[in-house]
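User: Fold this; tokens only.

Assistant: Input:
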Amino acid sequence: MEIEIDEDKCIGAGQCVLTAESVFDQRDEDGVVVLLDASPGAEHQDAAREAATLCPAAAIAIRAD
């Protein structure tokens, strides 16, 4: 799994952080998503997929290996 984010699409809703806090964070100044782990381990992949699905701006893209 490889995760990519589009900062220009991000609206700072924070659903990604609430769903997968080990993979995503948010910048303090504007709430834009910060990718902590572009290739999370198996234990975090389900949460990362769910975060991508929940993102209201579709700013998270997941590519399979």
